[in-house]
Specification:
single chain, about 0% helix, 7-stranded mixed sheet
Length: about 130
């Protein structure tokens, strides 16, 4: 079993930055691919970014490419999402997710491909 705990959300003005963290426990963190998703009110949960177990490969949604950066520190069992130049449309609950079964070369982008989820952290961007 893997436990994920997000932190770092908050209220920020448009153009500002936030750094989300995802602390993992219960399994060797370096054995897990990690993803970030978000869900705005009335919308489906959507893919934001993902990173391979040893950080060799990353993937981003087009809407955040060039503004968000996903990273991880396996020694600290923690993943990160650096969010710059935030926009009001980035407002959502952000979730980190992890999975251990992907042996392919493509990072997973669908929520149902991830096995473990955090409780979410609210990010609100004011205009």
């Amino acid at each position: 079993q893997v436990t994920l705990v997000e932190s770092g959300g908050g209220l920020v003005q448009a153009g500002g930055s936030l750094r989300l963290s995802c602390a993992a426990s219960g399994r060797t963190f370096s054995s897990l691919d990690m993803g970030w998703f978000r869900q705005a009110p009335g919308k489906e949960r959507e893919f934001v970014a993902a990173i391979r177990r040893r950080a060799v490969i990353t993937a981003y949604a087009d809407s955040v490419k060039g503004r968000f950066t996903i990273s991880r520190d396996n020694a600290k069992n923690t993943g990160y999402l650096q969010m710059n130049n935030l926009k009001p449309e980035d407002t959502a609950v952000y979730y980190c997710a992890a999975e251990a079964s992907n042996s392919g070369t493509r990072l997973y982008r669908a929520p149902n491909e991830y096995d473990y989820w955090g409780q979410g952290t609210q990010v609100t961007v004011s205009s």
